[in-house]
Structures are given as C-alpha cells and as structure tokens.
Write a structure and sequence with these properties.
By secondary structure, the chain is an alpha+beta fold. It has three helices and eleven strands; from the N terminus they run E-E-E-H-E-H-E-E-E-E-E-E-E-H. The strands form four sheets. The protein has a three-stranded antiparallel beta sheet with strand order 1-2-3, with no helix packed on it. A hairpin with a 5-residue loop joins strand 1 and strand 2.
Length: 196
Amino acid sequence: DWYVHRDGTLCSVDAHYVSPDNPALSDVVADLCERGGVTDYDVTALASDIVRGYPITQPTDAAGAINVLQQVYFFDMPEWGNSGDTYTKIRAVKRGGASVLNLSDDDLVDVDSDEDTRAQSVEFPRKLNLVFLDPDANYESAKETAERVSENVKAISEATVSTAVVFTRAEAAPRSHIMLQVAWEEAAGTSMVTVP
C-alpha cells in the first residue's frame, strides 16, 4: 500500500520513499496499455504533459482508466495499420492539432437531406464545473468553473465533470474552458456527409 506524504513524496506503508517526480502522461498511458495487454502502441504525442496524480480507486480495466485521462488531457487513441496486419496498433493523437486531410465539396457525395440539426437552447450549457483533486489544498476536491454568455443563444443549463486526476487550479482553469467550448460545439448539432 502507498500513500502521499504531506511534502508530496510517495511512500510505502513501511516508509520507503519513492521520487515525487511527476511522470509524463505518455509514461502513464504506456503503463496502462501494457497492463491491458496492448504492446504495440505509440504515445509519444503525450510526452509533454505531466500527471501530478491519478488515483484509481475502483476496479477498472485499462481502457476505462485511459478514458478518464482522455477526457481531461484531450487526446484520442485510434487504431492504425495496414489491413494485412495481424494485430492492433494504437496511437495517441492530441486533439486540436493540424489537419491531416482537407475535403472539398467535390470530395463529398450529394444526399437528399442536407439539413443540420441544432440542439434546443437549454442543451447548451451556460456553465461547466470541473471538479478535480488539488495538491495545493491537501488533495481535497476543488472546482474551476467556465461560463459562456451568448446574446444569440439562451443557455441556462450547468454541467459538472468530476475527475480523479490531480491538477493545480492554474492547470484546471483552461481545461474547464476547453471542455465548455467542446460541449457547445457538440450541442450545436452535426451534419452528415458521405465520403465516396
């Protein structure tokens, strides 16, 4: 059994100390992949992010543990490889990067219905609360709130996202704003296109 000492040092029950360094997100995801039996993966895109802490307090599989990290570090884990490959390869891709493919109208197939769907205004969250563990508050839960006001859309709902990942308030604040922006984009609706 392990615990975190007041000075931030990770200790075992018999008081052996482990370095308090914060591991790279890539190291944490790689460890989870291997625990889940995935050996062919590429997580180098995650090397610049650090993980201050991530207690896994309930039984879960590796995919579930990685999903929690994906939600607050904004990355995906798509499969890739040639169709002749005999095993699955997984690669971490940060969201918000450069476009890998540009489609023009000529690349799309015409369909009968070209309608966008738009959510009702109450589905657009006005506020998003990110609840996280704060190392500066003795790892107690803390909350950072992002709010968006629009003259064009009446948004009255409030959403709360809780995570077991450890962040300082300065790290959590921009994440809550990004999560609110994503929630608005998702609530704005989708348009369906068919690629030939």
